């Protein structure tokens, strides 16, 4: 009669055969996760069988602890957003130890078995939608690079919607011209905001216009006197 461990080995073998035949990345990720889960359960069964008298402290030492990753760098083109996650020695892990699942507005990266830990890097509510079939990741020396294929070719102002909303909330609103407002002061505030938010070319244009305006005011004052 087959034991539970024997059944698990047969399941793992069958899942590995399915993994070899799978062509879609999402199917491969699901199968890989299930294989890893069964391998972990099988290892625990064999460990209990071989050393049933292990102490609690020794058992605790073998546990994998999940560590959430928050820091990352990013760069983009019109069609791709790249996320850079630094993780020492990640390149030494087998390929199946790293899994990344994508939805149209999120990514979920997990790294299994690095320094007896499970590293988890999730990003929810991306700034715009991505093409899950074209998105992927690559492992480099001490780094994972996640490439997000944008559904619409355009620059993203931020990686996530949360970051964008925080920035928008902090940005001062445009000055409104009302009956009680000084039009000159409102125009000055608007120009200041355009100068602060503008690029180098915009800043040069505003600075030039300001300088010419001041010179005209001084020339006009000289003629009046």
From TrEMBL:
Domain of life: Eukaryota
Record flagged with keyword Plastid: no
GO BP, sorted A to Z: heart development
GO cellular component terms attached to this protein's record: cytoplasm; nucleus
One term of GO molecular function: tubulin binding
Domain SGS, residue spans: 145-225
Acetylation recorded as keyword: yes
CDD domains per UniProt: p23_CacyBP
Keywords: Acetylation, Coiled coil, Cytoplasm, Nucleus, Phosphoprotein, Ubl conjugation pathway
Stretch forming the signal peptide: none
Coiled-coil residue windows: 5-48
Compartment(s) where it occurs, according to its Swiss-Prot or TrEMBL record: Cytoplasm; Nucleus
Residues of the CS domain: 67-160
Main location: cytoplasm
PANTHER family documented for this protein: CALCYCLIN-BINDING PROTEIN, CALICYLIN BINDING PROTEIN
Annotated function: May be involved in calcium-dependent ubiquitination and subsequent proteasomal degradation of target proteins. Probably serves as a molecular bridge in ubiquitin E3 complexes. Participates in the ubiquitin-mediated degradation of beta-catenin (CTNNB1).
Identification of the protein by name: Calcyclin-binding protein
Species lineage: Eukaryota, Metazoa, Ecdysozoa, Arthropoda, Hexapoda
């Amino acid at each position: 009669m087959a034991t539970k461990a024997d059944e698990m080995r047969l399941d793992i073998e069958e899942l590995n055969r399915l993994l070899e035949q799978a062509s879609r990345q999402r199917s491969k990720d699901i199968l890989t996760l299930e294989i890893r889960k069964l391998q972990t359960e099988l290892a625990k069964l064999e460990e209990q069988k071989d050393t049933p008298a292990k102490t609690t402290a020794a058992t605790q030492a073998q546990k994998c602890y999940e560590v959430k990753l928050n820091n990352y760098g990013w760069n983009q083109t019109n069609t791709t957003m790249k996320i850079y996650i630094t993780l020492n020695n990640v390149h030494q892990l087998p390929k199946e130890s790293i899994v990344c699942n994508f939805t149209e507005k999120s990514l979920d990266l997990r790294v299994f078995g690095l320094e007896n830990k499970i590293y988890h890097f999730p990003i929810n509510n991306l700034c715009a939608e991505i093409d899950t079939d074209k998105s992927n990741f690559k492992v480099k020396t001490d780094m994972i690079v996640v490439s997000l294929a944008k559904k619409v070719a355009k620059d993203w102002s931020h990686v996530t919607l949360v970051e964008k909303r925080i920035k928008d909330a902090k940005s001062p609103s445009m000055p409104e011209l009302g009956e009680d407002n000084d039009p000159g002061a409102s125009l000055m505030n608007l120009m200041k905001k355009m100068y602060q938010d503008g690029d180098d070319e915009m800043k040069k244009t505003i600075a030039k216009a300001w300088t010419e305006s001041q010179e005209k005011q001084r020339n006009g004052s000289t003629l009046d006197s």
